[in-house]
């Protein structure tokens, strides 16, 4: 078989959609995935997305805006049903601390994404529009958006890959690269090497491991986001995507409610590893500032992998190999999720008494400025990174994949990706006020 033009490491949303965009531009693409498609972040996501609407003054070519347009037309473009819900984002403001957080959040979106349209409703207006919200709150921030179903998105993109002859290799761990000067000529895997014209690292949590071999350091924190799903409830129990300080929630098409962390008490766990110690200087101020909301634990599996990686790297240098855990499936405490569910039940009484049918967790790849890392990896002519989506991969994904594909195939990202350029990671990064 002829060598593919482009090898993508990672079969999550970003790898799959970048592959589809590249094939649309005439490229031949191979995807290497160590588990199954969507097994890590992309299949566990709440998948809340922004959608076009409102009277945004933002740049129409901003990545978030392009992504919003792409989600709105995704079904037609890629011929797959992604269970798009377009009932809006509803952010509950319960007290002055929440109000303060929401204003920081708005400023962040405006600055980083050029797309932050929202309207604040008082309690009477909010209840008139959403009678489900009977519990106490002070205001509701409403934005154009909604959610898609992560499993349907991955299933749809798997079908796109089949229809468009994308060579998808699951159970294939990328372990390193072969080089010629500043060109990557092949990706090494546990099933032999795969020659390539270009490579895209879209390996989510494990992109830093591979990028280390390309002498490019990504100061990423891996943060666990616990989640749960209830038994099905009647339709329209939750309008669109609902976020409050202690929970985020959406209703799936089968009626079940998916619940995760809120915006002030994110319930996130920082799985501490040696990797974090290396970047402690960068992260320490934000961790200290948010110390009440942050909890730490040591993840033995990740720690063991890191020790193995360091040993291999020490012995073999950049021509060596790296490793990423297979079947990485971190846990989530059902008791903690029940507490979040009871907070949600205080706001929407119809949810009281709902039973959790499944508790699980996903791990997010946070970058200090909470912005993705996109573009050519410094020092290389044909190696690209598309990662570090910092819990926003569904919101930014379609625009990001379009940009990377355009950059590789036509030398033009079309969207302005300067804010996401990899080089910024070696400059002084502006840490966001929210740690997430
Ligand atoms: C609980 C939760 C809720 C979320 N909610 C939202 C939300 O509401 N809105 C939003 O926009 N975003 C949300 N996110 C974030 C979003 O899901 C991610 O940003 C997005 O899925 C990232 O996609 P990805 O393809 O970059 O990474 P991933 O989906 O993690 O894919 C990377 C893939 O690479 C594979 N891989 C890694 N290393 C190797 C290797 N060496 N060889 C071969 N394969 C490898 C992995 O197995 C994995 O399948 C959420 C995430 C979680 C966990």
Which CATH class is shown? Answer: Alpha Beta
Gross morphology: globular
CATH H level, superfamily name: FAD/NAD(P)-binding domain
Helix content: 25-40%
User: Could you say what the CATH architecture is?
Assistant: 3-Layer(bba) Sandwich
**Alpha-carbon distance between the two ends:** 44 Å
Report on this model:
This protein has one domain: 3-Layer(bba) Sandwich (FAD/NAD(P)-binding domain). The strands form four sheets. Strands 4, 5, 6, 13, 14, 15, 16, 17, 18 and 19 form a ten-stranded mixed beta sheet that branches. The protein has a six-stranded mixed beta sheet with strand order 8-2-1-12-21-20. A three-stranded antiparallel beta sheet has the order 9-10-11, with no helix packed on it. It is of the alpha/beta class. The chain has helices at 13-24, 41-44, 63-78, 96-113, 123-129, 150-163, 207-212, 274-278, 280-289, 300-316, 334-347, 393-410, and strands at residues 6-9, 29-32, 48-50, 89-93, 119-122, 139-143, 145-147, 167-169, 174-180, 183-189, 192-195, 198-201, 221-230, 241-243, 248-251, 257-260, 269-272, 295-298, 356-366, 373-376, 383-387. It is 32% helix and 23% strand. It binds flavin-adenine dinucleotide.
